[in-house]
Amino acid sequence: MATIKAPARLPELVRATFAKALADGDLFYFPTHVQDMRFQLRFSPSLANKPKAAPPKKDAAGAPSSKPPDPFEYTTSPPPRLFVGDVGAAHFLVLNKFAIVPGHFILATRAYRAQTHVLEADDLHATLACLRAYEEEDDAEPASASAASAGGGDGALFAFFNGGEHSGASQPHRHIQLLPVAAMREGLPADSAWRVLVARLDGDKASSSSSSSSVAPFRTFAEDIRLDTSRDDLYATYLRLYERAVRATLEDESAAVATGGRAAISYNMAMTRSRLVLCPRLSEGGAITDPDTGDVVGKLSLNGTMLAGTALVRTEAEWEALRKNPRTLTAVLKSVGLSQPQFIDDINKL
């Protein structure tokens, strides 16, 4: 099987395409305030003005006359203003039209594949090709700049996948999202201790029967990878982690796990230059209460960016409530996945 390659000079290409699309009004960028609690908390006041999708057309009987639009249905003509490039014959890269992080881009399947199904080998292989492209640019920079963007082990690019109803997934067409790590640090103080979360946790190792991680309140399943890991070895790693995550969720270590078709659980996957991680999900989020009044002021919804160690709120009331009482964030993080009994109950340890 030939190696799948990312477009040449991918980081530069993403930056240039993002800058032009933003200047031309073809994408929306929502700057954020950030609270540095090791687990980043971000709030974008302008998200309230995010354009809403047009309601589906209805027929004479009042029923939807067509299926919901698929933002990644570009089998014949990718959108020229957001299109970044092809990654092999089966995948392409496109900018996120509604970006919180500058340079946020997406790897999507050219033919329709379900987001709820188990990933295929080329999905992971194409993702690794993008990670490799970012690391190659990072290695070409001067040592000081390289160290800053790599983040002491975080890598230059963070990839994540939302699979299933409890994962934070919003589109049915299969796609994996990619975020430049340097852009994820924007707004943090120079002395911030924040790092990509998956770079700091061990997860449940395949050789261990108990959890070893204490920096997250939810269980994860992880194995180390390399930028030159082969397609087949990478996929075998993913399937091992998926099987372990399913058995842990079902609380049945002897359960047979199908490795194709619809996934048996909701989960998030994250990939960096050195680690592949799966996190089973039981819910998408939880309520946010005002610490002074006890009133519910909103809901915190989490997707795969929680494996980077970041969360986004959409209203000022939610932002203020979580800043006043960070343990509310810890409580929501505890509720979204399998319990991590060795977690130290202190948000500043995240």
UniProtKB/TrEMBL annotation:
Residues 216-338 form the ATP adenylyltransferase C-terminal domain. Residues 6-186 form the Ap4A phosphorylase 1/2 N-terminal domain. It comes from the Eukaryota. It comes from Cordyceps javanica. Residues 48-74 are annotated as: Disordered. One of its GO terms (biological process) is nucleotide metabolic process. This is Bis(5'-nucleosyl)-tetraphosphatase. GO terms for molecular function: ATP binding; ATP:ADP adenylyltransferase activity.
